[in-house]
Amino acid sequence: MSDSTHIVCPHCGAVNRIPSSRLAEHPRCGKCRQPLFAAHPVALTAENFQRHIERSDIPVLVDFWAPWCGPCKMMAPAFEEAARQLEPRVRLAKVDTEAEPALGARFNIRSIPTLALFRGGREVARQPGAMGAADIVRWVQSRL
User: Fold this and answer.
1) How buried is 89 (Cβ within 10 angstroms: 0-12 exposed, 13-18 middle, 19+ buried)?
2) Among this protein's residues, is 12 annotated catalytic?
3) Does residue 2 lie within any of the structural domains?
4) Where's the Thioredoxin domain (predicted)?
5) What is the pLDDT of residues 31-68, one digit of tens each?
């Protein structure tokens, strides 16, 4: 039996088991048939946050941001570009701390934007402040 990786569908939340060797082949969800990776950050809420963090076998990079934050708005295109470069090895996600204040409080987010890298359900690294795409990719790769 081949080595497999669990991936949470960004559309329906189903947990998919994908052969690790096929991650780069644009896998689709077995339940909703949508692409598991779209080179676009996933919006996380209080309802789906734990599932993505705990059930995905790949690391999850979360951008804690707010719509009124100028640096957050400036970093958004860079985060999109980083998603194109890092998927499918890393899932990129965003948490709107204005809409989800409990998540911001739970992770003691004191400044935004803040990037938090999760692996195996636990936070393994954190970086406050806006960054460019190349810097985001380098930072993630240096932490994995």
Assistant:
1) middle
2) no
3) no
4) 33-144
5) 999 999 999 999 999 999 999 999 999 999 999 999 99
**Using CA atoms, how far apart are residues 44 and 67, in angstroms rounded to an integer?**
15
Active-site residue, 69 included: yes
CATH of residue 75's domain is 3.40.30.10
CA distance 119 to 56: 8
Q: What is the mean pLDDT of the chain?
A: 95
pTM across the whole model:
0.94
Distance from C-alpha of 92 to C-alpha of 108, rounded to nearest angstrom? 20
Helices (H), the chain: 49-55, 70-86, 101-106, 133-143
Domain residue limits at 120:
38-143
Distance CA 25, CA 28 (A): 9
